[in-house]
């Protein structure tokens, strides 16, 4: 039977049989035993499903991947060791040296550097576009060797809303898939596949975990993009893989070709897997995701409204505010709430922002975001400090931007801590 998201959060992925543990067990083993050589050979030939080495598959990891896949409504999900690994794998799975892809320029700073610097060293070129540009200007950036378009549902740290349907249509017009990082919204608040997105990524370190206990990521495939229609553009999926017995993924695995290739080729060679212990912890977080997200959004909206009225605050960007320019898009894609992350700027200097943060009591200064505890960061001084003010603005990050991740504490205590810190400025 079809289940609602709340039930999937609890029961998805692991369905214990008679005498099996109710809770998902930790299969803390690197390898798995078989009775005959042929049994293992069939696994290596991808003729049978099963487990032989945790770098490629592990029962704990797979159960959690199945849960996330069900939450997003995909055909396949692969867990990775971090959100950065997920974004790299999602793009690298269909790009190689000499290829090109397009991304929103408002994405997380680490991803900005991954795409613009590290992947460029591998021979894959990335063009950054401003999602605020009109269609004609963005479409000029598509090339014959463009392989995908990338964006974030809610940009980190700026809080801008990505128009998924608009960019899905644009990507498909040019014969490429749209990849969306859905970390901040989570599938509780937004399911990008319903708006034409083809591939979703997450940093599961954030809201999915919710308690800052593990680092992880995932890639989820909708199964909707027709790779065979553009076979010349995606030879890695549509022509024989000489590193895997001449197997052609689209012919052998249909709409699961993308995730099968990601595991059997990239994960085999690069090995960015999560530990089963980490997946177990992630699963505990997923069980309460549907309860935590509404509280994050409720608290964040109250804090954003308070900040908007505060005379010491120069500006606030939170799409849940009716005054916000992204409010219509937020209502379209996330009518039940966006996330708990607010971007705002204080009146004054960069030093004033730092002093404000240093004055906080229980709100923590951490290189983290999107968990149960309220935390704060000044990207220009921390996560994005390698970028100049000009580069920050190009990436949609104001030099004075303070990223406030509102937790699930009592909202009155959160506001009181912000007030006392501002009073000391």
Strand order of the largest sheet: 1-7-6-5-4-2-3
Low-confidence stretches: none
- For the termini, the CA-CA separation is 57 Å
Radius of gyration, whole Å: 22 Å
The helix/strand class is alpha/beta
Mean pLDDT: 94
Q: Would you give an account of this structure?
A:
- This protein has 17 helices and twelve strands.
- The chain is an alpha/beta fold and 425 residues long.
- The mean pLDDT is 94.
Structure summarized in a few sentences:
By secondary structure, the chain is of the alpha/beta class.
How are the SSEs ordered, and which strands pair?
Elements: H1 5-11, H2 37-44, H3 59-72, E1 76-80, H4 83-92, E2 100-104, H5 109-121, E3 125-129, H6 135-139, E4 146-152, H7 164-173, E5 178-181, H8 186-189, E6 199-203, E7 217-221, H9 235-238, H10 249-253, H11 257-270, H12 276-286, H13 289-309, E8 313-317, H14 327-333, E9 341-346, H15 350-358, E10 364-365, E11 375-377, H16 389-394, E12 401-405, H17 411-423
Parallel strand pairs: 2-3, 2-4, 4-5, 5-6, 10-11
Antiparallel strand pairs: 1-7, 6-7, 8-9, 9-12, 11-12
